Amino acid sequence: MALFLFLLLMAVVLGLIGTVAHSLFYLLIIGIVLVVADVAYASVRWSRRSQRRAVR
Question: Would you place residue 45 in the very low, low, confident or very high pLDDT band (cuts 50, 70, 90)?
C-alpha cells in the first residue's frame, strides 16, 4: 500500500511540474505513465489477494 501511495504522489507531483512548466511536458507524460502503472500494479495485487481465499 505504501508503494501504491508513493507512486501516486510522485505521479501527481510530476504532472503538476509538467503542467506548470510548459517546456517540461515530458514530466507530465511520465506522470501519466506512472498513474497507469500504479493502477495496473494495484489491480494485479488486489486480484491475486482475492484468489487466495478458500471458498467454503
Answer: confident
